[in-house]
Design the sequence.
């Protein structure tokens, strides 16, 4: 079940920072084309893939959202051939010094993030915790060439190539959230030869990391009857508190809390238990910080679920996921969709 | 214009039945995202009077009571069913659980309090270290949520991860005052139920009993999108910080005062009330001789924050029964403020003419 | 154009209370408008042109509200306590003058500080309108006021309060006057309540559902003295700025390219702008309904959100030219 691996590794080698997802969208289009009846692009650039169901019209629909945008950096100034940058999405500046990056100028330029010498920084700055505005990117090219090839607003992505470790985990940048795009792709692949009553909208959304803009606008345009947001969640690991993290390799998480419709949670839980697909309960007391947070309040409201793929070291270039978790999540989604019938919406009642 | 001297006209009153209903509502447990207990009471109360009742995707109860005459304003009223509370996140065995707060509760309000957990209202406590085992330095530091735990006694299996918990306070009337948990916003809910029962004939009343106000005005957002009203009035609760200053100087940041009547919002952190609605409420109060106060502009927000930005914009205002000690185990409000709030909103609805929004730009 | 700017910046109109400034703008645009409407939140919406086959429905937004203050209490001795409307900072208030919507004027001062090295908090500030007690006070809880400073013409540089964003409104008014023919359906939106969270643009964009959205607002500059903050790469006098991103949104790359191409074709100066904090109506437009490709034409400005914001007059005039060039032709977004 690991045919998605080359596809996922390809995604991890593409840029596609928030707002600039055209760099990664074509790969997803290519993978989804044989798995969908129709592909279209939203006004903000999200990819919509439709798999028509076989029930009579008007058919209910379920929307699966996995954001395709990734965090990275953007050039704010060019100074003596060095680049100053700002962040796109949340990056802890302490992870940056020494990282290999790619500057997407008029051509792609390899670079390294440099923390300037202590003497060249203001007094209040602590070595090892240098704020982003003082860091520099060095491409090794001479200033005149940099001036020609790089402009304010150009993007910079992590250059870390993806690799597998023993124990079937994959390491790379942008596993947040390309791992979930793989999950949706696995689901579509499973559904290819399974009849299903409902329409399925697979959405590779844009700008989750900065505004949930893709989720809000695609949700509004498509107005599904149900929605599932697939995003990475915090896996147990060194440095992260155990009471806020979840086991990696033990299946996806199913989120429980105000951002999730309880009947939808229960339906997924029961299905996972029946099929013996392992999962972990993830309690989210306030918000989930995912596309699901937006989808739930689009229009007249959409019953939604959030499914998490446990991931270590989120928002660093060495994010890590278990490949098995991707397969399990994709399969659970496909099975859920396959058993949806015209009575399901009646079951989504608030039981009181 | 109808005034209180017109014998044909009777404004709703708070009597034993209304207080009894408020007691049921206050004692019910409904943390944001889990409003079922209050929803059930609301449904039972409004069904006899509603033309339409619907529970939407988030659990809002949307009630329509149509009026007569053409044209008619569609007036949305909103009150939120949810209260701030807690959610169990980790089972540490032996009846001890980690938890997080839902909505804004300061950690120091939680220590040493009895609580109720889950649908079965399982009793428990949030304990606190005995003073004997602390030192002076420690007692100077504020309590941190990370150190607190829910304790159901050394048993397992009575509650589970994901269960919600609330304060265990029972409602009680204390002379002129009412005390209970979640008066924010059960007072609004009780008021709204009464207004549905006594809806005036010349408007379409769209009553939204909303969910998840405390964690981001989320229910109101979709409810107002669905209703698409001409204007909205939100019934919430607002703090009264009307206590003496430590040095007996003038208290300039009281927000509202108990006994000074319904609090009309000109501005809060989420909404700049439509001035036409402010004027309407103030003029109505003065015509009917109802005391009122202006809630001090500042932070905080109500469902109006979500409602006024929906669709192409909805003129909105909030009005609250002032209460002390909101978002803590025991809130306190005055019966007279509640009565005046109910009267003022009922009168204001009655006085809304169909051309209210067209005679004057915002 | 200076007379227009002066008229706009010297009008009082804090967020939520834009009626007076809306009337001033309305008088300026009425002769040039095909259609004028005022929506539920008070946005002034001016249509020019009808969409032809090659045209787009374009929403242009400049906000007419300014930051201000609102009264929370008038104490026994007549001192007026207040809180803010929008991003007002304590250090720009002390010693400043304010004018209430009802015409009353006052000065902002502060309680004697315990620590002169710290910035005062708003709890330590108050407005003195010249009273000795609160009996018959001319202001009450809920009344609003804005900074009060006259427009100052330094030749190439113009200084006033509320350049943010009356200068944007001025650019749109001038552009409206100068647009002769256009294949596009243009909606000049003089929006409200931007300073408290782009609220007016949110509802206006929903109502219009445009194909393309462009805000006109101020942005900061990096050309003033500093000790520790790294310089922003925008300066006064180098032309209007094409926004790449700010604290709340990433401009649509297709819109950025269109703006750059148009500027280069028309041989107009421009700068590329990245603003670390703050956002504009463009963000609200981008997220409306099913999404709107959006961007922003920025007027570089020094000392934003102080009573003396400074812009370069040439930048402003170039912005008008660029705006007219942008909206007068078919738009190609690629």
Sequence:
């Amino acid at each position: 079940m690991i045919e998605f691996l080359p596809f996922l590794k390809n995604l991890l080698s593409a840029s596609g920072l928030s707002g600039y997802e055209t760099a990664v969208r074509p790969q997803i289009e290519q993978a989804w084309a044989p798995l969908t009846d129709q592909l279209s692009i939203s006004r903000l650039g999200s990819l919509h893939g439709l798999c028509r169901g076989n029930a009579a019209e008007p058919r209910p629909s379920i929307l699966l959202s996995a954001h395709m945008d990734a965090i990275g950096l953007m050039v704010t100034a060019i100074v003596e051939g060095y680049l100053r940058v700002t962040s796109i999405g949340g990056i802890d500046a302490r992870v940056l010094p020494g990282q290999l990056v790619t500057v997407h100028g008029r051509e792609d330029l390899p670079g390294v993030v440099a923390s300037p010498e202590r003497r060249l920084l203001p007094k209040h700055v602590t070595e090892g915790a240098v704020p982003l505005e003082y860091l520099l990117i060095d491409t090794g090219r001479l200033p005149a060439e940099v001036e020609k090839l790089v402009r304010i607003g150009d993007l910079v992505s992590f250059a870390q190539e993806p690799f597998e470790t023993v124990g079937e985990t994959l390491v790379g940048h942008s596993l947040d959230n390309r791992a979930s795009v793989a999950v949706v792709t696995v689901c579509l692949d499973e559904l290819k030869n399974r009849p299903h009553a409902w329409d399925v909208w697979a959405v590779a959304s844009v700008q989750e990391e900065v505004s949930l803009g893709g989720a809000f606008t695609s949700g509004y345009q498509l107005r599904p009857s149900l929605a599932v947001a697939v995003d990475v969640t915090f896996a147990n690991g060194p440095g992260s508190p155990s009471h806020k993290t979840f086991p990696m390799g033990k299946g996806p998480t199913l989120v429980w809390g105000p951002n999730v419709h309880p009947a939808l949670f229960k339906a997924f839980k029961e299905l996972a238990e029946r099929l013996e697909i392992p999962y972990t309960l993830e309690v989210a007391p306030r918000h989930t910080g995912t596309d699901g947070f937006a989808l739930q309040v689009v229009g007249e409201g959409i019953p939604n679920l959030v499914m998490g793929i446990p991931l270590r070291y989120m928002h660093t270039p060495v994010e890590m996921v278990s490949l098995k978790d991707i397969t399990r999540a994709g399969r659970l989604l496909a099975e859920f969709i396959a058993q949806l019938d015209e009575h399901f919406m009646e079951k989504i009642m608030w039981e009181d | 214009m109808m005034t209180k001297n017109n014998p044909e006209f009777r404004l709703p009153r708070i009597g034993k039945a209304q207080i009894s209903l408020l007691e049921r509502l206050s004692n019910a447990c409904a943390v944001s995202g889990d409003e079922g207990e209050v929803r059930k009471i609301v449904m039972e109360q409004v069904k006899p009077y509603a033309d339409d009742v619907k529970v939407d995707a988030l659990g809002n109860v949307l009630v329509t009571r149509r009026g007569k005459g053409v044209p008619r304003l569609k007036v949305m009223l909103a009150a939120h069913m949810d209260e701030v509370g807690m959610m169990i996140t980790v089972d540490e065995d032996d009846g001890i659980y980690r938890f997080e707060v839902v909505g804004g509760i300061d950690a120091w309000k939680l220590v040493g309090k009895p609580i109720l957990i889950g649908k079965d209202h399982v009793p428990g406590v949030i304990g606190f270290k005995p003073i004997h085992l602390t030192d002076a330095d420690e007692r100077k530091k504020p309590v941190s949520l990370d150190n607190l735990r829910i304790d159901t006694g050394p048993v397992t299996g009575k509650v589970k991860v994901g269960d919600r918990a609330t304060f265990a306070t029972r409602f009680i009337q204390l002379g002129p005052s009412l005390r209970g948990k979640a008066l924010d916003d059960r007072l609004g809910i009780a008021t709204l139920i009464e207004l549905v029962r006594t809806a005036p004939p010349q408007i379409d009343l769209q009553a939204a009993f909303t969910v998840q106000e405390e964690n981001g005005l989320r229910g109101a957002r979709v409810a107002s999108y669905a209703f698409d009203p001409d204007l909205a009035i939100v019934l919430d609760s607002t703090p009264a910080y009307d206590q003496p200053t430590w040095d007996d100087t003038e208290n300039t940041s009281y927000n509202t005062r108990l006994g000074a009547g319904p609090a009309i919002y000109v501005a809060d952190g989420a909404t700049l009330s439509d001035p036409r609605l402010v004027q309407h409420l103030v003029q109505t109060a003065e015509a009917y001789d109802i005391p009122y106060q202006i809630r001090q502009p500042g932070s905080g927000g109500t469902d109006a924050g979500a409602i006024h930005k929906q669709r192409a914009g909805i003129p909105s205002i909030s009005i609250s029964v002032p209460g002390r000690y909101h978002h803590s185990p025991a809130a306190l409000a005055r019966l007279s403020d509640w009565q005046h709030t109910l009267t003022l909103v009922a009168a204001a609805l009655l006085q809304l003419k169909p051309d209210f929004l067209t005679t004057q730009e915002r | 154009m200076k007379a227009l700017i002066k008229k706009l910046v010297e009008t009082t109109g804090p967020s939520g209370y834009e009626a007076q400034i809306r009337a001033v703008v309305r008088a300026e645009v009425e002769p040039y408008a095909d259609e004028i409407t005022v929506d539920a939140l008070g946005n002034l919406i001016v249509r020019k042109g009808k969409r032809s086959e090659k045209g787009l429905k374009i929403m242009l937004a400049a906000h007419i509200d300014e930051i201000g203050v609102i009264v929370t209490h008038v104490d026994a001795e007549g001192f007026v306590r207040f809180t803010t409307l929008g991003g007002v900072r304590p250090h720009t208030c002390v010693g400043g003058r304010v004018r209430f919507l009802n015409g009353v004027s006052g000065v902002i001062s502060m309680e004697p500080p315990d620590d002169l090295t710290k910035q005062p908090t708003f709890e330590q500030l108050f407005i003195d309108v010249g009273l000795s007690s609160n009996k018959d006070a001319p202001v009450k809880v809920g009344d609003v006021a804005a900074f009060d400073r006259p427009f100052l013409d330094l030749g190439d540089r113009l200084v006033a309060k509320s350049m943010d964003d009356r200068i944007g409104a001025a650019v749109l008014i001038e552009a409206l006057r100068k647009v002769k023919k256009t294949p596009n359906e243009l909606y000049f939106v003089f929006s409200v309540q931007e300073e408290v969270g782009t609220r007016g643009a949110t509802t206006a964009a929903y109502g219009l559902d445009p194909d393309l959205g462009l805000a006109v607002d101020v942005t900061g500059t990096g050309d003033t003295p500093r000790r520790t903050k790294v310089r922003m790469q925008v300066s006064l006098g180098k032309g209007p700025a094409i926004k790449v991103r700010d604290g709340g949104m990433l401009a649509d790359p297709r819109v950025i390219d269109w703006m750059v191409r148009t500027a280069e074709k028309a041989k107009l100066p421009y700068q590329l702008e990245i603003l670390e904090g703050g956002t504009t109506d463009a963000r609200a437009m981008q997220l409306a309904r099913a999404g709107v490709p959006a961007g922003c034409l920025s007027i570089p400005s020094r000392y934003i959100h102080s009573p003396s914001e400074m812009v370069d007059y040439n930048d402003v005039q170039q912005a008008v030219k660029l705006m007219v060039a942008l909206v007068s032709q078919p738009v190609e977004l690629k």
Q: What stands out?
A: Chain C touches chain A at residues 227-233, 244-245, 248-253, 256, 272, 274, 276, 283, 286-287, 289-293 (CB under 8 Å).
